[in-house]
TrEMBL record:
Gene Ontology MF, one: NADP binding
Domain named Glucose-6-phosphate dehydrogenase NAD-binding: residues: 25-208
Protein name according to UniProt: Glucose-6-phosphate 1-dehydrogenase
NCBIfam families, per database record: zwf
Organism: Galliscardovia ingluviei
HAMAP family associated with the record: G6PD
Family classification: Belongs to the glucose-6-phosphate dehydrogenase family.
Function: Catalyzes the oxidation of glucose 6-phosphate to 6-phosphogluconolactone.
Chain sites annotated for binding substrate: H199, K203, E237, D256, K359
Length: 507
């Protein structure tokens, strides 16, 4: 038996660095995102020993709360949603640094109070002037919160201390609004201090995609148009819009998901090997891919959109989108979108990338499927390979993270019969460490000031340049095609692939 080092076993190699002294200020702290994701993620970081002793958490909101009320609210959220077990001591230590500031976004006095509160925390908790501001608020509130932070002196870093701002998607609703938001935020914060959150990029599998491609000699040589027939990137949800009608209606799923998550996944799948995994080198490669994306010449043939109608989701009856509470009964907002994109680079010439996303589909799944060309010559009799499909590498981002390889294998027996089989790797079974939740990873990266996973201004603008013409075309069409809840989207989407002689995979 070798020498046992208990320290080595308990170390989490994926998140090895502890943030320095700082506070996190959350605007919109009483909203869903904060309650379900951000507050539990902060607790999980604390419980794994990744937050400094001098950490503080400040909530900003309209409620008439005392600090104690805020602590009780955080505790409820943590007990309901945290990944790590609830520990009284950990929570009590965290709670000593919690404060609540009441106010509206246009209330200068509330921001003065916030400024006093963080100065007091610098003194009492030793946060040393390092503060991150999380805007868990609608995009329309970004400009006013940014200006208030500037006017109250909270936005500028000084004397070696840092100030950072974290902005949730969507970043604008088209290129023009994204540029305007970028301008407002850039007037207030240094470019290096702005972190745009795309929680998809915090998921372990997305980073595993980079490892899969660049750490293994068996994949990269075939990751190009010589071998790849096409790529399908799918983000399917089995739920409807829930209580998000106010946000979702009028925005639609293409702006909500394709512009950010799916185009980022496309960039990571298609990019060239970066010189290093530093933020700047990764961004440079993603920007090259997004700059090379070409839209189909005829959008009527190579895009599809739909809207769910009533149907069965599993054993439950689901109402149609137009019957959802808060939705305009004449709404033309799409709940399903599919597009074909091409990438004008040497590596991907002639390989279509199909992106699709929708609500109330057959099941919840996000995956990237790289589908290979068929073998050029099959020396088997026609009958023996009747079931053979194309080889594929499928990277599952959620829910059961992992990778599947699909290839042809001989069926046991005397005849030479070849059939498709799957070889499966799943994170849950291969590693004993639990993957950190996306928001844990991203919040820690912000506190450490490490930006590789955050899309830059340029990436955001390029993504809107890709989507805007599609949105403008769709705006001329009227009602999207209906598809029944619990199915895989409108007929139009199947026809779109059939025209290219392909079909969607069943995830």
């Amino acid at each position: 038996m070798g020498h046992h080092n208990p320290l080595r076993d308990s170390r989490d190699l994926r998140l090895p660095r502890i943030a320095g002294p700082c506070s996190l200020v959350i605007f919109g702290v009483t909203g869903d995102l904060s309650r379900k994701k951000l507050l539990p993620a902060v607790y999980d970081l604390a419980s794994r020993g990744l937050l400094p002793a001098g950490f503080a958490l400040v909530g900003f909101g309209r409620r008439e709360w005392s600090d104690e009320d805020f602590v009780a609210y955080v505790e409820r959220s943590v007990r309901e949603r945290a990944r790590t077990p609830f520990d009284e001591d950990t929570f009590r230590h965290l709670a000593e640094g919690m404060r609540f500031v009441r106010g509206e976004f246009d209330d200068a006095a509330a921001f003065e109070q916030l400024s006093k509160t963080v100065s007091e925390l610098d003194r009492l908790r030793g946060t040393r002037g390092n503060h991150a501001f999380y805007m868990s608020v609608p995009p329309s509130a970004f400009p006013i919160v940014s200006r208030q932070l500037a006017d109250s002196g909270l936005a500028k870093s000084d004397k070696g201390a840092w100030r950072r701002v974290i902005i949730e998607k969507p970043f604008g609703h088209d290129l023009q609004s994204a540029r305007e938001l970028n301008r407002v935020v850039a007037e207030v914060f240094d470019p290096d201090s702005v972190f745009r959150i795309d929680h998809y990029l915090g998921k372990e599998t997305v980073q595993n995609l980079l490892a899969l491609r660049f750490a293994n000699t068996m994949f990269e040589p075939i990751w190009n148009s010589n071998y790849v027939d096409h790529v399908q990137i799918t983000m399917a949800e089995d739920i409807g819009i829930g209580s998000r009608a106010g946000y979702f209606d009028g925005i639609g799923i293409a702006r909500d998901v394709i512009q950010n998550h799916l185009l980022q996944l496309l960039a990571l799948t298609a990019m060239e090997e970066p010189v290093s995994f530093s933020a700047d080198d990764l961004r440079a490669e993603k920007i090259k891919v997004l700059s090379a994306v070409r839209l189909p010449e005829d959008l009527s043939l190579h895009t599809a959109r739909g809207q769910y109608s009533a149907g069965w989701q599993g054993s439950e009856q689901a109402v149609g989108y137009l019957q959802e509470q808060g939705v305009n009964p004449d709404s033309t907002t799409e709940t399903y979108a599919a597009v074909r994109l091409d990438i004008d680079t040497r590596r991907w010439a002639g390989v279509p990338f199909y992106l699709r996303t929708g609500k109330r589909l057959g099941k919840r799944v996000t995956e990237i499927a790289v589908v290979f060309k068929r073998a050029p010559h099959l020396p088997f009799e026609q009958t023996s390979t009747s079931e053979l499909g194309e080889n594929a590498i499928v990277i599952r981002v959620q829910p059961d993270e992992g990778v599947t390889l699909r290839f042809g294998s001989k069926v046991p027996g005397t005849a030479m019969e070849v059939r498709d089989v799957n070889m499966d790797f799943s994170y849950g079974n291969s590693f004993t460490e639990a993957s950190p939740e996306a928001y844990e990873r991203l919040i820690l990266d912000v506190l450490l000031g490490e930006p590789p996973l955050f899309p830059t201004t340029k990436e955001v603008e390029l993504s809107w340049q890709i989507l805007d013409p599609i949105e403008q075309y769709w705006a001329t069409l009227g009602q999207p095609q209906a598809y029944r809840a619990g199915t895989w989207g409108p007929k139009e989407a199947d026809e779109m692939l059939a025209r290219d002689g392909r079909c969607w995979r069943m995830p």
